[in-house]
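In this section we walk through a basic example: taking a raw amino acid sequence and producing a predicted 3D structure, encoded as discrete structure tokens. The instruction is simple. Fold the sequence below.
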Amino acid sequence: MPIFEYLCPACNRIFSFLSLRPQPAGVPVCPHCAATNLTRVPSSFAVARKSADVSRSAPAPGGADGPGAGHPTGDDDPAAARMEAEMMRMADSLGDADAENPRVMARMMRRMAEVSGEPVTDTMNEMLRRLEAGEDPETLEEELGGQLEAEMGGADGAGGAPTRDDGLYDM
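The resulting token sequence is shown next.
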């Protein structure tokens, strides 16, 4: 079952939702503050088995679960569509062992920054360089996470990088 991630602007927090459908039927409600204006965000990391497997499970375009079924999709936003297409290309090229490889993770993060046009801060560059050297992602997060958050807008939650909720919620 797919997991979709949504940002609550009121909480400045990203929540993960488990869907029983290949595409969500609508936008969920924030599990923390009950806000209804959540925005779907790209998942930080995704792995697909084979494009043939994905296409067999995907609904027909324009169907009840297709584009426009209760929420904006990549079809409505060219930049999001480009990013989603690139994510699918990268996921198709991954093997099961690649999902845990810090070097592959760094390569994908660099590519996503390039595709999205997001700047790579000095700390992010350091983190990517060290991932490419094979260092443990969790150790790097502990060591550089606060500094990275400060570079991206502050750790006070006021306009800074959103935090990530650890829960998994039903849609």
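Looking at the output, two observations stand out. The first strand starts at residue 3 and ends at 8. Residues 52-75, 154-158 have pLDDT under 50 and may be disordered. In the next section we compare this with other chains.
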